[in-house]
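Deliverable D5.2: sample structural annotation.
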Amino acid sequence: IAPPANGTVKLETVNGQVTGKVRMAESVTLNAKSVNGEIDLAVPRSTSAKVNADVSVGNFNVSNLALAESKRSRNFTGEHVQGMLGSGTGSIDLAVQNGTIDLKGF
């Protein structure tokens, strides 16, 4: 997926996996949500975006990206992670109730 600058991409499922490879221009907003299922998202290593991830039951994993975490917390309601890729000009919001979020760089 290659959304235009200043565009918004929304990926949602109730039961199933959200999988994608997104080339994000600056100022793009990406929202991915799953109730029961994994989010497996790949973005270029050069991506610039603020990242917010919420997982109720499961884990949040990052690989091959320089995510500067500003906040990571886990409690009885799940795991919440905030961070930044690059200078944070775009936005990546990820949420899973039951599953895992994998954010990868390519």
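Annotation notes: The first strand starts at residue 8 and ends at 15. Strands lie at 8-15, 18-21, 29-36, 39-43, 49-57, 60-63, 68-75, 78-85, 90-98, 101-105.
The annotation will be released with the project's public dataset once the embargo ends.
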